[in-house]
Protein 1
Amino acid sequence: MPRASWKGFLRLSLVSCPIYLSPAATRTKSIRLHQVWQPMAERGGPIADEEEEEQSVRPTRRSFVENIGGDAPLFPTRVVLHPHDPHTGEEIEREEVVKGYEYERGQFVTFTAEELKALDVESSKIIDLETFVPRAGVDPIYFNTPYYVYPDGRIADETFGVVGAAMREADTVGIGRVTLSRRERPVMIEPRGAGMVLVTLRASEEVRASSFATANTDIDADMVAVASMIIKRRSGHFDPAAFRDRYQDALRELIEAKMKGLPVRLKEIAKPRPVVDLMAALKRSLAQEIGTAAKPKRKAAGDRRQTSLLLPVSGKKANVTSAPAAAVTARPRRRKA
């Protein structure tokens, strides 16, 4: 059973069934960089190796063990943040930290967990399918977080299946609301196989209006045709497994090089040159996609006949030169009057 992040009911008019949501997306385990205190040397720069190369940076393998003495540590030390009193600097117990709202500078109203719990609305436990729209009618710019929707228990299977089949037959998706992490959000629910997928939607105030210019009607049709050919050459199917996080790969290589004390060479990304002649750039791009066109092979000078039109000749070895003669039919002689 997948991990449930929300439990409640899916309701269509007077019909409801218990469901639970399970995250459909996960965050890949990326390399985490921490805040580290690295003391500065007396000369005003970071402590470096005595034998530092000019062309590359050769780091020292440092230990993160704190110094026992009272002096400042000589090696980088991870910074740990704790809640503290801003006036005295004394550490505060986490149990004493509550939710609060600053209505004026330095003036707060605080809330207990019970008071916040009493604010729950109907969507905290029920996703009411209020309306149904075509799938293409929901702009993807509003998509936020996807979840898988599962029936919660065998008693919900029949109702869950009927609602999903009805949406599939009508070719529509359901729009409702759900409260997650004390935020009520609009959601879109669509059938997916034997289950459903729920996608939380951004609110209207969370999406900025575009500032696109009006469509340019003076676009060169020939340029569009060349660009379309390039797009056609690159047409394919979306494969998420084909994409890797190249930044994380580069960061991992950098960490391994520093741990081994290897020189680190800094790379620069070449900036593209500005396009002066757009049509020429498009043609070069198309030629690069197609590759160097192979020149057609010349046929032998002694035989310029179209071999594809020659009739087959029986025998172990076909005599190509005799084929046309066999194909010629003798004309009948005219009778003398």
Protein 2
Amino acid sequence: MDVQRVLLAAPRGYCAGVDRAVETVERALQAYGSPVYVRKQIVHNAHVVRDLEQKGAIFVEELEEVPEGAPAVLSAHGVAPEVYLQARARSLQTIDATCPLVTKVHNEAKKFASDGFHIILIGHEGHEEVIGTMGEAPASITLIGSPEEAEHVHIPGDDKVAYLSQTTLSVDETNEVIDVLRRRFPNIQAPPREDICYATQNRQQAVKEIATSADVVLVIGSANSSNSKRLAEVAASSGASSHLIDDDTEILEGWFDGATTVGVTSGASAPEWLVDRVIAWFRDRGVTEIQEVRTIDEDVHFALPKELLPLVQK
């Protein structure tokens, strides 16, 4: 293998919303004991889910799988209002781990809809965050996912139109969609603050920085992680060969034929110990130059869900 150095992107890995969500499940297990039920994957990472399962969490697809009255955590991606109604109907001890930045988009959707706007939501069909946001005002939201769809979307009553976006999209691609929407709907209203979260933007900027100097970029994250997939796409568009991997066991040495510099980053739901394992993989093969490339410092922290605070303060 010809690799001589590894460039390690920073920031990388856990964002404040993921850190909060994972800690929420751990604190709920401490407070209630096992089992604590979690609707959907708390975050989109297979290793995190397996670790929490070993600690006593039970992951379910829908709340009807949860015994009445049991503790239930809602994932970081947010849910539609009907899910809260289901939780109340089953008398569940609900703990809402929705990322505050996703909650912000939900609130924007409710406000625009109540003010009579039709909302164009930029996002990926079927993603849990999109399903939750659309559930806030289904009659007032149209989903699109590309500039091509933006060119052809039809909105009833074009005079009052607004746009929102999923928080984990590619910044560059989303801006392309917004440019089309602004051309087609000159009076379109933007959210008060942009929806793509700080961590998504920071990690994309960091991977761009290393991709311009790397032959190959490895992005550590699960295949169902939107922000991780976007990192791999950003790396590829910046000129590097890129691969999305769950962990070091998926690395193939053939990827590095003729490569002297490899970039490594991780999605916002990937724990740092997975990065350590990938770095160890390279060290085991004689790579000694590991250089962290930092583009910005992050100091964002979110408080635990309000439902959990009385339990952890006892």
